[in-house]
Design goal:
Distance between the termini: 9 Å
Strand content: 35-45%
Strand order of the largest sheet: 1-24-23-20-21
Number of domains: 2
CATH class of the largest domain: Mainly Beta
Largest sheet: 5 strands, antiparallel
Order of helices and strands: EEHEHEEHEEEEEEEEEEEEHEEEEEEE
CATH architecture of the largest domain: Sandwich
Number of strands: 24
CATH superfamily of the largest domain: Immunoglobulins
Shape: globular
Oligomer: single chain
Helix content: 10-25%
Number of helices: 4
CATH topology of the largest domain: Immunoglobulin-like
Radius of gyration: 20 Å
Protein backbone atom coordinates (compact mmCIF):
# COMPACT_ATOMS: atom_id res chain seq x y z
CA UNK A 1 0.00 0.00 0.00
CA UNK A 2 1.16 3.51 -0.83
CA UNK A 3 2.28 5.53 2.20
CA UNK A 4 2.57 9.26 2.79
CA UNK A 5 5.25 10.66 5.05
CA UNK A 6 5.68 14.24 6.18
CA UNK A 7 8.85 15.72 4.73
CA UNK A 8 10.33 15.87 8.22
CA UNK A 9 10.58 12.08 8.23
CA UNK A 10 12.42 12.19 4.91
CA UNK A 11 14.89 14.90 5.86
CA UNK A 12 17.82 12.65 4.98
CA UNK A 13 16.93 13.08 1.31
CA UNK A 14 18.39 16.60 1.44
CA UNK A 15 21.85 15.37 2.35
CA UNK A 16 22.90 15.39 -1.31
CA UNK A 17 22.04 17.74 -4.15
CA UNK A 18 18.95 16.36 -5.85
CA UNK A 19 18.76 15.78 -9.60
CA UNK A 20 16.98 18.95 -10.75
CA UNK A 21 19.12 19.57 -13.83
CA UNK A 22 17.10 20.98 -16.72
CA UNK A 23 18.67 21.66 -20.10
CA UNK A 24 17.53 24.96 -21.59
CA UNK A 25 15.99 24.63 -25.07
CA UNK A 26 15.77 28.21 -26.34
CA UNK A 27 13.54 29.53 -29.09
CA UNK A 28 14.87 32.87 -30.31
CA UNK A 29 11.73 34.55 -31.59
CA UNK A 30 9.79 37.75 -32.21
CA UNK A 31 6.07 38.51 -32.24
CA UNK A 32 6.31 40.10 -35.72
CA UNK A 33 8.05 37.04 -37.23
CA UNK A 34 5.75 35.00 -39.57
CA UNK A 35 7.84 31.82 -39.38
CA UNK A 36 7.90 32.06 -35.59
CA UNK A 37 4.12 31.73 -35.64
CA UNK A 38 4.16 28.98 -38.27
CA UNK A 39 6.53 26.00 -38.00
CA UNK A 40 8.36 27.71 -35.14
CA UNK A 41 5.14 27.70 -33.12
CA UNK A 42 4.43 24.05 -33.93
CA UNK A 43 7.94 23.05 -32.92
CA UNK A 44 7.67 24.87 -29.59
CA UNK A 45 4.30 23.24 -28.92
CA UNK A 46 5.92 19.86 -29.62
CA UNK A 47 8.67 20.64 -27.13
CA UNK A 48 6.08 21.60 -24.52
CA UNK A 49 4.28 18.28 -25.00
CA UNK A 50 7.51 16.30 -24.64
CA UNK A 51 8.86 18.03 -21.59
CA UNK A 52 5.65 18.37 -19.66
CA UNK A 53 5.67 14.56 -19.73
CA UNK A 54 9.38 14.18 -19.02
CA UNK A 55 9.36 16.48 -16.01
CA UNK A 56 12.37 18.67 -15.38
CA UNK A 57 14.68 17.18 -18.01
CA UNK A 58 14.47 20.31 -20.20
CA UNK A 59 12.94 23.77 -20.18
CA UNK A 60 11.60 25.17 -23.48
CA UNK A 61 12.33 28.91 -23.13
CA UNK A 62 10.91 31.74 -25.24
CA UNK A 63 13.71 34.25 -25.92
CA UNK A 64 12.03 37.30 -27.48
CA UNK A 65 14.91 39.37 -28.78
CA UNK A 66 12.52 41.67 -30.67
CA UNK A 67 8.82 42.54 -30.93
CA UNK A 68 6.14 43.11 -28.32
CA UNK A 69 7.74 40.86 -25.69
CA UNK A 70 11.39 41.85 -26.10
CA UNK A 71 13.48 42.94 -23.13
CA UNK A 72 17.19 43.57 -22.47
CA UNK A 73 17.75 40.17 -20.87
CA UNK A 74 16.29 38.32 -23.88
CA UNK A 75 18.34 40.43 -26.29
CA UNK A 76 21.54 39.58 -24.42
CA UNK A 77 20.55 35.90 -24.25
CA UNK A 78 19.99 35.83 -28.00
CA UNK A 79 23.27 37.62 -28.74
CA UNK A 80 25.18 35.25 -26.46
CA UNK A 81 23.75 32.27 -28.35
CA UNK A 82 25.03 33.83 -31.61
CA UNK A 83 21.53 33.73 -33.02
CA UNK A 84 21.09 34.98 -36.57
CA UNK A 85 17.52 35.36 -37.73
CA UNK A 86 14.37 33.85 -36.32
CA UNK A 87 13.08 31.47 -35.28
CA UNK A 88 16.25 29.75 -34.18
CA UNK A 89 16.53 26.96 -31.64
CA UNK A 90 19.35 26.02 -29.27
CA UNK A 91 19.87 23.11 -26.89
CA UNK A 92 22.07 24.67 -24.25
CA UNK A 93 24.45 26.69 -26.42
CA UNK A 94 24.24 24.26 -29.35
CA UNK A 95 22.31 25.35 -32.45
CA UNK A 96 19.82 22.95 -34.03
CA UNK A 97 18.50 23.63 -37.53
CA UNK A 98 14.69 23.68 -37.65
CA UNK A 99 12.63 24.43 -40.74
CA UNK A 100 9.12 23.97 -42.10
CA UNK A 101 10.23 20.72 -43.73
CA UNK A 102 11.99 19.06 -40.80
CA UNK A 103 10.52 20.42 -37.56
CA UNK A 104 8.63 17.24 -36.61
CA UNK A 105 11.73 15.08 -37.15
CA UNK A 106 13.92 17.49 -35.19
CA UNK A 107 11.87 16.96 -32.04
CA UNK A 108 13.58 13.59 -31.59
CA UNK A 109 16.95 15.23 -32.31
CA UNK A 110 16.35 17.66 -29.46
CA UNK A 111 15.58 14.76 -27.14
CA UNK A 112 18.84 13.09 -28.09
CA UNK A 113 20.79 16.30 -27.50
CA UNK A 114 19.08 16.90 -24.15
CA UNK A 115 19.84 13.37 -22.94
CA UNK A 116 23.49 13.75 -23.96
CA UNK A 117 23.84 17.04 -22.10
CA UNK A 118 22.01 15.75 -19.02
CA UNK A 119 24.51 12.91 -18.69
CA UNK A 120 27.49 14.96 -19.83
CA UNK A 121 30.22 16.50 -17.67
CA UNK A 122 29.83 19.77 -15.79
CA UNK A 123 31.78 21.79 -13.26
CA UNK A 124 28.78 22.56 -11.07
CA UNK A 125 25.83 20.94 -9.35
CA UNK A 126 22.88 23.00 -8.14
CA UNK A 127 19.42 22.68 -6.67
CA UNK A 128 16.64 24.92 -5.48
CA UNK A 129 15.96 24.55 -1.76
CA UNK A 130 12.83 25.51 0.18
CA UNK A 131 12.95 29.18 -0.39
CA UNK A 132 9.96 31.22 -1.50
CA UNK A 133 8.68 33.94 0.79
CA UNK A 134 5.82 36.15 -0.35
CA UNK A 135 5.76 39.63 1.16
CA UNK A 136 3.02 42.24 1.03
CA UNK A 137 4.60 43.86 -2.02
CA UNK A 138 4.60 40.56 -3.95
CA UNK A 139 8.34 40.03 -3.61
CA UNK A 140 9.84 36.59 -3.07
CA UNK A 141 13.17 34.91 -2.49
CA UNK A 142 14.81 32.01 -4.28
CA UNK A 143 17.53 29.99 -2.56
CA UNK A 144 20.01 28.09 -4.72
CA UNK A 145 22.37 25.50 -3.26
CA UNK A 146 25.60 25.09 -5.23
CA UNK A 147 27.99 22.19 -4.71
CA UNK A 148 31.73 22.58 -4.27
CA UNK A 149 33.56 24.02 -7.27
CA UNK A 150 37.36 23.81 -7.49
CA UNK A 151 40.30 24.16 -9.85
CA UNK A 152 38.36 25.49 -12.80
CA UNK A 153 39.96 26.69 -15.99
CA UNK A 154 37.54 29.62 -16.51
CA UNK A 155 35.50 32.06 -14.46
CA UNK A 156 31.96 30.91 -13.61
CA UNK A 157 28.95 33.20 -13.18
CA UNK A 158 25.66 32.35 -11.47
CA UNK A 159 22.42 33.88 -12.73
CA UNK A 160 18.79 33.35 -11.71
CA UNK A 161 16.25 34.22 -14.39
CA UNK A 162 12.49 34.74 -14.17
CA UNK A 163 10.21 33.51 -16.94
CA UNK A 164 6.45 33.77 -17.37
CA UNK A 165 4.25 31.11 -18.93
CA UNK A 166 1.14 31.80 -21.03
CA UNK A 167 1.84 35.46 -21.78
CA UNK A 168 -1.02 36.74 -23.92
CA UNK A 169 0.23 38.66 -26.96
CA UNK A 170 -0.15 38.78 -30.72
CA UNK A 171 1.94 36.54 -32.96
CA UNK A 172 2.40 36.95 -36.69
CA UNK A 173 0.85 34.06 -38.70
CA UNK A 174 -1.58 33.34 -35.88
CA UNK A 175 -5.22 34.49 -36.15
CA UNK A 176 -5.75 35.61 -32.58
CA UNK A 177 -3.66 36.59 -29.60
CA UNK A 178 -1.82 33.57 -28.29
CA UNK A 179 -0.49 32.26 -24.98
CA UNK A 180 3.28 32.50 -25.40
CA UNK A 181 5.05 29.80 -23.36
CA UNK A 182 7.86 30.39 -20.85
CA UNK A 183 8.77 33.91 -21.92
CA UNK A 184 12.15 35.00 -20.54
CA UNK A 185 11.33 38.13 -18.52
CA UNK A 186 14.12 39.20 -16.19
CA UNK A 187 17.31 38.34 -14.31
CA UNK A 188 17.80 38.76 -10.57
CA UNK A 189 21.06 40.67 -10.99
CA UNK A 190 22.42 43.91 -12.35
CA UNK A 191 24.11 41.85 -15.08
CA UNK A 192 22.36 39.80 -17.75
CA UNK A 193 24.88 37.00 -17.16
CA UNK A 194 24.58 37.12 -13.37
CA UNK A 195 27.45 37.61 -10.95
CA UNK A 196 30.89 36.05 -10.61
CA UNK A 197 30.57 32.93 -8.47
CA UNK A 198 34.06 31.46 -8.62
CA UNK A 199 37.12 32.71 -10.46
CA UNK A 200 39.47 30.60 -12.53
CA UNK A 201 41.76 28.53 -10.29
CA UNK A 202 39.80 29.27 -7.10
CA UNK A 203 37.78 26.94 -4.88
CA UNK A 204 34.36 27.59 -3.37
CA UNK A 205 32.78 25.18 -0.92
CA UNK A 206 29.12 24.13 -1.03
CA UNK A 207 26.96 27.15 -0.35
CA UNK A 208 23.35 28.30 -0.46
CA UNK A 209 22.71 31.72 -1.97
CA UNK A 210 19.57 33.84 -1.59
CA UNK A 211 18.12 35.90 -4.45
CA UNK A 212 15.41 38.49 -3.75
CA UNK A 213 13.00 39.61 -6.45
CA UNK A 214 9.94 41.83 -6.85
CA UNK A 215 7.99 41.04 -10.04
CA UNK A 216 6.86 43.76 -12.41
CA UNK A 217 3.20 44.65 -11.88
CA UNK A 218 2.43 43.52 -15.44
CA UNK A 219 3.59 39.95 -14.72
CA UNK A 220 1.10 37.26 -13.75
CA UNK A 221 2.65 35.97 -10.54
CA UNK A 222 0.72 32.71 -10.79
CA UNK A 223 2.57 31.90 -14.03
CA UNK A 224 6.12 32.75 -13.00
CA UNK A 225 8.94 30.21 -12.99
CA UNK A 226 12.63 30.43 -12.15
CA UNK A 227 15.72 29.27 -14.01
CA UNK A 228 19.23 29.19 -12.53
CA UNK A 229 22.24 28.92 -14.84
CA UNK A 230 25.89 28.51 -13.96
CA UNK A 231 27.69 30.12 -16.89
CA UNK A 232 31.28 29.32 -17.81
CA UNK A 233 32.93 32.35 -19.39
CA UNK A 234 35.34 31.70 -22.24
CA UNK A 235 36.65 34.93 -23.74
CA UNK A 236 33.60 37.14 -24.30
CA UNK A 237 31.17 34.21 -24.49
CA UNK A 238 29.14 32.48 -21.78
CA UNK A 239 28.37 28.76 -21.95
CA UNK A 240 25.76 26.90 -19.89
CA UNK A 241 27.68 24.65 -17.52
CA UNK A 242 24.69 23.62 -15.42
CA UNK A 243 21.06 24.73 -15.24
CA UNK A 244 18.03 24.02 -13.07
CA UNK A 245 14.43 25.17 -13.48
CA UNK A 246 11.12 25.22 -11.66
CA UNK A 247 8.02 25.84 -13.75
CA UNK A 248 6.31 27.28 -10.67
CA UNK A 249 8.04 29.50 -8.16
CA UNK A 250 5.18 28.58 -5.82
CA UNK A 251 6.71 25.11 -5.58
CA UNK A 252 9.61 26.60 -3.62
CA UNK A 253 7.67 28.29 -0.85
CA UNK A 254 8.59 28.20 2.84
CA UNK A 255 6.29 31.04 3.99
CA UNK A 256 4.88 31.05 7.50
CA UNK A 257 2.12 33.63 7.83
CA UNK A 258 -1.45 33.91 8.99
CA UNK A 259 -2.50 31.00 6.81
CA UNK A 260 -0.27 28.73 8.87
CA UNK A 261 -2.33 29.61 11.93
CA UNK A 262 -5.66 28.86 10.26
CA UNK A 263 -4.99 25.91 7.96
CA UNK A 264 -3.87 22.43 8.97
CA UNK A 265 -3.17 19.25 7.03
CA UNK A 266 -3.81 15.61 7.88
CA UNK A 267 -2.27 12.81 5.80
CA UNK A 268 -3.49 9.28 5.28
CA UNK A 269 -2.64 6.51 2.83
CA UNK A 270 -4.73 7.79 -0.09
CA UNK A 271 -5.89 11.24 0.98
CA UNK A 272 -4.70 14.64 2.13
CA UNK A 273 -7.23 16.53 4.23
CA UNK A 274 -6.98 20.30 4.64
CA UNK A 275 -8.99 22.09 7.33
CA UNK A 276 -9.35 25.78 8.16
CA UNK A 277 -10.53 27.35 11.38
CA UNK A 278 -12.12 30.36 9.66
CA UNK A 279 -14.76 30.81 6.95
CA UNK A 280 -12.45 32.34 4.33
CA UNK A 281 -11.92 30.76 0.91
CA UNK A 282 -8.41 29.57 0.09
CA UNK A 283 -6.99 28.53 -3.26
CA UNK A 284 -5.26 25.14 -3.17
CA UNK A 285 -2.76 23.84 -5.71
CA UNK A 286 -1.00 20.47 -5.85
CA UNK A 287 2.40 20.75 -7.56
CA UNK A 288 4.93 18.00 -8.16
CA UNK A 289 8.70 18.32 -7.78
CA UNK A 290 9.06 19.33 -11.45
CA UNK A 291 6.75 22.29 -10.94
CA UNK A 292 3.77 20.76 -12.77
CA UNK A 293 0.34 21.81 -11.52
CA UNK A 294 -1.58 18.57 -10.89
CA UNK A 295 -4.73 19.80 -9.19
CA UNK A 296 -6.40 23.07 -8.24
CA UNK A 297 -9.35 23.41 -5.87
CA UNK A 298 -10.81 25.69 -3.21
CA UNK A 299 -10.74 25.17 0.53
CA UNK A 300 -13.80 26.24 2.49
CA UNK A 301 -13.19 24.88 5.98
CA UNK A 302 -12.52 21.33 4.72
CA UNK A 303 -11.04 19.83 1.55
CA UNK A 304 -10.07 16.20 0.82
CA UNK A 305 -7.54 15.59 -1.96
CA UNK A 306 -7.38 12.06 -3.32
CA UNK A 307 -3.76 10.98 -3.93
CA UNK A 308 -4.39 7.34 -4.80
CA UNK A 309 -3.26 7.81 -8.41
CA UNK A 310 -0.14 9.88 -7.62
CA UNK A 311 3.29 8.45 -8.34
CA UNK A 312 5.86 8.17 -5.57
CA UNK A 313 7.76 11.37 -4.91
CA UNK A 314 7.76 14.80 -3.31
CA UNK A 315 4.66 17.02 -3.66
CA UNK A 316 3.81 20.58 -2.63
CA UNK A 317 0.35 21.58 -1.40
CA UNK A 318 0.17 25.35 -1.83
CA UNK A 319 -2.60 27.13 0.06
CA UNK A 320 -3.02 30.80 -0.85
CA UNK A 321 -5.16 33.83 -0.16
CA UNK A 322 -4.41 37.22 -1.69
CA UNK A 323 -0.60 37.53 -1.66
CA UNK A 324 -0.05 35.06 1.17
CA UNK A 325 0.88 31.42 0.63
CA UNK A 326 1.51 28.51 2.96
CA UNK A 327 3.22 25.42 1.60
CA UNK A 328 2.81 21.87 2.86
CA UNK A 329 5.28 19.27 1.64
CA UNK A 330 4.53 15.56 1.56
CA UNK A 331 6.40 12.53 0.32
CA UNK A 332 4.21 9.87 -1.26
CA UNK A 333 5.69 6.38 -1.33
Amino acid sequence: MKQIYPLLLCFFLAAQLSAQRAIVVSKVTATWCPRCGDYGWDFMEGLKDIYSANGAQALPLGVHYSGDLENPVARWFSDNLKSQGQPQFFVGNDFISVSSGNWSDQLSSVQTMVEAQISGPSNAEMEFVSSRIVNDDGSFTVNVKVGQMANLGNDHYLAVYVFENDVVARQSSRTNEENHPNVLRDVISNNNFGDLYVASGDTREEETLTFNYTPDDSFNQDNLGVLAIMWEKDGDDYYMDYSIASMSWKALTSTRDIIADNVSMLQSADNITLSSTDTDTYQVQVVNQSGQLLDEQQLNQKLIINTAEYFSGLYFINVSKNNSVENFKVFIK
